[in-house]
């Protein structure tokens, strides 16, 4: 894969594989998960990157709000401590979610607002993701975890109008 070749060259020249980016605080493994690059996610883990690496804080930058609509990312936009699994689930990348689970990602991890990967799948950014909700439940994701605002995964699915996810989560 060309992305791995590029990463190997960057590593050869001393690139920090766990460096965070601005303004969202993601590391390369987070970005690989966001874009569904499963082989690259695996490569980063094989290089010693933490499969459950945490994002930093989202920087307050008025330009970000001007550049794109952040509403699909709510209520997750301003959270920190997101894992690659959370972001892959929110983006809807089933293959990346599967790869991360196979690599030992923590299905019970919580971000700084108490959201789990199941919350991210249930309140997915772009479209309903019932297959990811089911996959995480199959991997023992707890369906009743409440975030700091009291929201459970089923509540996020209902807010977004994701009826199939809500049905799965009600069972």
Task: Give a description of the structure.
- With 171 residues, the protein is mainly α.
- 40% of the residues are buried.
- Helices cover 47% and strands 0% of the residues.
- The termini are far apart.
- It has helices at 2-12, 28-34, 38-46, 62-67, 84-91, 94-102, 117-122, 130-138, 153-160, 163-170.
- The protein is globular and about 50 Å long.
Quickly list its features.
mainly alpha; 10 helices; single chain; 171 residues
The helix-and-strand class reads: mainly alpha
End-to-end Cα distance, whole Å, is: 40 Å
Question: How large, in whole angstroms, is the Cα Rg?
Answer: 16 Å
- What's the overall geometry? globular
Please give the count of helices. Answer: 10
Unreliable residue stretches: none
Helix content bin: 40-55%
The whole-number mean of residue pLDDT values reads 90
What's the helix-strand series? Answer: HHHHHHHHHH
Q: In what range is the share of β-strand residues? A: under 5%
Number of strands: 0
The profile of the biggest β sheet is: none
What's the SSE blueprint?
Elements: H1 2-12, H2 28-34, H3 38-46, H4 62-67, H5 84-91, H6 94-102, H7 117-122, H8 130-138, H9 153-160, H10 163-170
Helix pairs in contact: 2-3, 2-5, 3-6, 5-6, 9-10
């Amino acid at each position: 894969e060309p992305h791995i070749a590029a990463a190997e060259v960057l590593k050869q020249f001393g690139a920090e594989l766990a460096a965070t980016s601005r303004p969202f605080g993601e590391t390369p493994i987070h970005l690989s998960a966001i874009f569904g690059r499963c082989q690259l996610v695996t490569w980063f883990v094989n290089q010693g990157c933490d499969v459950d690496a945490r994002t930093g804080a989202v920087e307050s930058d008025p330009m970000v709000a001007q550049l794109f609509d952040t509403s699909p990312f709510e209520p997750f936009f301003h959270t920190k401590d997101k894992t690659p699994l959370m972001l892959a689930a929110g983006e809807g990348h089933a293959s990346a979610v599967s790869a991360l689970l196979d690599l030992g990602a923590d299905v019970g991890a919580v971000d700084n607002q108490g959201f789990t990967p199941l919350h991210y799948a249930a309140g997915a950014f772009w479209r309903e993701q019932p297959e990811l909700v089911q996959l995480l439940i199959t991997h023992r994701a707890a369906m009743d975890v409440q975030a700091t605002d009291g929201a459970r995964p089923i509540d996020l699915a209902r807010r977004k109008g994701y009826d199939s996810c809500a049905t799965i989560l009600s069972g």
